[in-house]
Amino acid sequence: MKKVLILEDSRKVGFGGGQKGSLEVISSLVDHFEVTATDSLPDSIFATRSRELLGKPVYRLRSFGSDVGGNKGSFRIGFLELVMYPFLTAWNVIGLFGLIRREGMNSRNAILYAPLKKTLVPAWVLSLVTRIPFVYHARTVDDPTSVYFKILKFILKRARSILCVSQAVASNLEMPQCQVLYNAVQTQEGATAKRVPALLPSSDKPKFVVAAFASLLHWKGLEYLIRAARLVRNPEDVEVRIYGKGPLENELRELCSSNCKMLGFAENVNEILASEVHVVCTPSIFEEAFGRVPMEGNSFGIPAIVTNIGAQAEITIDAVTGYHVPPKDAQAIAEAIDHMLANPDHYHLLSQQAIEHSKSFDLAAHRLRVRSIFESIN
């Protein structure tokens, strides 16, 4: 049985889309490969769920840094973190080399899996030393003019396979090893199309709930959704909810009007989507690499409002499963909300089409594809 070493580091993000994706990979492989997982936080959600899936401990990596947020990405690297990174990487490589030997891994029976850039360098170094092939899971769209991007592409020349979560990511990297592997969603059996809340007096009827699930960072564009809450035609009928945590929490809270709520990080996203939300919104002002929230929303029959760039626009079909709006345009978001409220039959159709579209990202098919990719590596 082939062995797979998962090199995860959830120190900065806690539990986000990347960690969900890594767990999906583990779930895809656990019955067919001997899987070992690592993480920098021994009690993280990823580490806890990995132990449950694998039935064995998760090896601890050494890491440094916290989620401070960048202008164009989820994280910004601080000076001290940059200084410490080479030393921590060397420490981790030495520790992982020992783990590889203890687990009996070699170039013929093992694969390294790096799901993020922070563990890509250790995977690359270990591959150079041990000749064990590595797979990189690309989940970001990066600036192709930067020195950093050129270094990334140099390292990726050695990757046996590059799994890209969208065509936007694959087009950004433009490397022969790229394979588009969309993130998966659990198809919701029995999901039925949603309807606009009943046309009752405003004081009695349920609110039309528009929700965003995101880290509270500048590039997520949440301020434009918050401003849209003020601009909708009938604010008393609409409730905007922001789920997430991050450095902009206080700033965003100050922008909120009476029909907007900041609700913190949500672990029970599926429960909220199933029973409380009518529209999900991804107002990011830069390109997303995938757009997991719109797709998860679609699986529950929830249309999405997304900016017309990156994979969020690739995943959401304009006027079919939701609406595209320009970045930084609160008025356009408000108009999309108003249009759905004013046209309940069309909203119902969007909801039906969203359910059908989500079936293209079925979890069972995704797991078969992941397994096939890893089985093809030798």
From TrEMBL:
The chain crosses the membrane at residues 82-100. It comes from the Bacteria. Keywords: Glycosyltransferase, Membrane, Transferase, Transmembrane, Transmembrane helix. Gene3D superfamilies: Glycogen Phosphorylase B (3.40.50.2000). GO terms for molecular function: phosphatidylinositol alpha-mannosyltransferase activity. The keyword Protease does not apply. Residues 204-356 form the Glycosyl transferase family domain. PANTHER family: GLYCOSYLTRANSFERASE. This is GDP-mannose-dependent alpha-(1-2)-phosphatidylinositol mannosyltransferase. It comes from Rubripirellula amarantea.
